[in-house]
Every structure is written in C-alpha cells, then in structure tokens.
Specification:
Layout: E1 2-20, E2 26-45, E3 54-58, H1 67-77, E4 85-90, H2 101-117, H3 123-129, H4 133-138, E5 142-146, E6 151-154, E7 161-167, H5 173-187, H6 194-209, E8 215-216, H7 222-228, H8 231-242, E9 246-249, E10 256-260, H9 264-273, E11 279-285
Parallel strand pairs: 3-4, 8-9
Antiparallel strand pairs: 1-2, 2-4, 2-5, 5-6, 7-10, 7-11, 9-10
Domain GHMP kinase C-terminal: 221-273
GO molecular function: 4-(cytidine 5'-diphospho)-2-C-methyl-D-erythritol kinase activity; ATP binding
Pfam families: GHMP_kinases_C, GHMP_kinases_N
Amino acid sequence: MNHVLYSPAKLNLTLRIGARRADGLHDLSSVFLRLPSVEALTITMDSENNVKDLLSVQTIELKGINLVTRASERLRALGWPLPFLRVSLWKQLPPGTGFGAGSGNGAAFLRWASALLGRSLPLELARELGADVPFLVSGLPLAFACGVGERLEGLKALNLSALLLVPRWSSPTARAFADLDRRREERGSSVSDPLFFRIEAETLVDDLRRGATVGLLPNDFTDLLAERHPEYGLFFAMAEKAGALAWGISGSGSGAFALAQGPTALLKLVASVSAEPWVTHLLVLE
C-alpha cells in the first residue's frame, strides 16, 4: 500500500536574527506564513528490506541526507518501531532557497509517522531538524516565532496569493549566518530589542490584513544578498510596478517572493520577470 503525503513550504514575512548564542545557534523573531502543499512524498512499507530506507527524488537533484531520512533514523534511535520504507519524493523547490521545502518534507513525514504509530508528535525532534520544522509540523497557517523557531504563537490566516522566485544561485544557511555574524562584528552592530521585532511584525501583519501596500519586508539577510546580486532590486521594482502588496527574501535566501490579493498582479509580474536569465523557477500559489 502506498501512502501519499502532501508537503508544505513557508515564507518568512519578517526575519530578524539575534546574537549568536553559546550553542552556536541564533535566536530569531519571525512571522511564518504556511504555503499550500508544493511537494509530495509517496511512502511504501518495504517488507523485503531490513537494512535502511530507500529514498528516490524526482525532478530535482539533492545532495546529502534529506530531512525525511534524518527524521526516520532519529525516530528509530528514539525507539519508535518504524519499518524500513521506500520513499519517492517529488520536488519543485531546490534546497538553499529559504522556502523550507525540505523542512516541509520532514514535517509531513513526522506527522505521518506519528499517526501511523499512534504516538504524539515529537516536537523536540522537530526543533532538532531545523528552525522551520516546528512551524510546518504544527499545521498553523500563520505564526509569530521566536527562540530558534520552536516557540510559536498562532495568528489568524492571511488570504493572500504568493509568487515564489528561485534564482540561479543558492544561499546555504550556514554560510549566510556566518556572513551576517562577520558583518556585524566588522561594523560593531548591535541587535535590536526583541520587543521592537514583535511590534514590527504585528504592524506588518495588520497592514497586510487590511490590504495595504507595505513594500519590502524586513529580513536581516536582504542587504547581504542584494549587494552580491543586484537582480533582487530589479525583481522588487517589478513587483512594485505590477501592484504587489509586499515583496522580499524568504529565510536566509536565495528565494524571493511577492504577495498580492489574488493572482492578477502576480501573473503580471510573472510576465515581466520570466524572461530574466537569472530566474530558474517561478511558482504562483493561491
């Protein structure tokens, strides 16, 4: 029997990064927006295999260990009687784009394994797998997150359409955080009060909820990425001209996005940006 799981992704409508902690991680303040299912996993119990899970990936090449494999290995290490599996993963969004598609794969798997075995969702494992996973495993449509992504406060859903843009370059998370730390050290920059981040986030969500144009959304990685790739500025200008409400970079990049009330403005934006040679994927979600 095949089990088909639909896997979500996310946008960071805001992303503020705190100072580096003693454990090497960073506290964050962010508004997470859940995206509709963009990828899918097909899981089959493998009665002939008692060695390891077998994972195949369709459409996009992945390097390293996918979060589905990491999640299954950790669950078994925790004593969960999970059989070995054959997993086929159909992907639309490459890694290193900040849309959390890999985290969505892991979150979908954790929810499935919990239901299969009748056990509570392993929230500590979700946090261990990555900052996006606790939100994606929660099922919340919109949330304010702090800590390292594990402290969530659910917010009322936003009824917005989104355009996701994947450029030809990626932005590995570890490198992005190291670059941000280095820049702050060189400039002697301080980190703002978390209360400011919360007020900023609440104001932006309220503005978007009433259909106001808010423009470029705050993300501490935007300046670094825009300096290396001026193409972001071109996309943001196109988004404004097309009539989008908001635009920005998700996570630590490299993916950019625009938001609008309904798809009309976004389809106009697609027509403008699709011919750009630096764009590899465009995806409109409602």
